[in-house]
Amino acid sequence: MQTVLGEINTILFDKDGTLLDFHATWDHVLGAALREATGGDGQQLAGAANAVGFDLATGTILANAPFVAESNHKLGKRLRPFVDLDGFNQAMRHFAKETAVPMLGMTGLLQQLSAAAIRLAVVTNDSEAQARRQLHQLGWVDYFDVVVGYDSGYGAKPDAGPVLGALALLGSDPVTSLMVGDTMHDLRSGLGAGVLTAYIGEEPELASLADVAGPSIVTLFESILALG
Ligand SMILES: [Mg+2]
Fold first, then answer.
1. Least crowded by CB within 10 Å, which of 39, 100, 184, 209?
2. Judging by beta carbons within 10 Å of its beta carbon (0-12, 13-18, 19+), is residue 21 exposed, middle or buried?
3. Residues of the domain holding 192
């Protein structure tokens, strides 16, 4: 597909905040899991919430919270002093069962890219199994050729490993591939792997690192495909 960035035949998507509406999907799930895993102990709850960047007063995940970008492995290390990790992970899986909320316009965009024979992958710092469950919930399984999580054997973002791993599985060249994400971790991982990068968000510092940027997935892809 000819785009403003040149020929692109492969697009790698971050999951949370990129494919999925981050707050609609995770605010309630994380709050409920933190409460469940700390069993009514206010001090443990406050410590755990602080460790991952959850605002107990508003019930929302803070901007730049560790939960936004870090791998589950790193988040586990932060939480270990405050919760039983197995219990927490079990509660997360339980509350996340039915809650994947797509970004506005995402399903239509995936249909369009898939129809144009673009190879698509998910590259997430969440677990591969959780990503697959959410794709299944949304009816998106057939759109994605590859799903790489922090536990798929390629390391975690911001290292280049997961992007390179997805490219290897797809048989794609970095030069004709685009990594799309909403955090510095996504951009660093893409830049390290030598792919083109697209940033969804409104932070100028991150926008300046990416080849293309936009405030939402719809506006971002309008500008990528505009002159294609
Ligand atoms: Mg993200």
1. 39
2. middle
3. 2-20+101-225
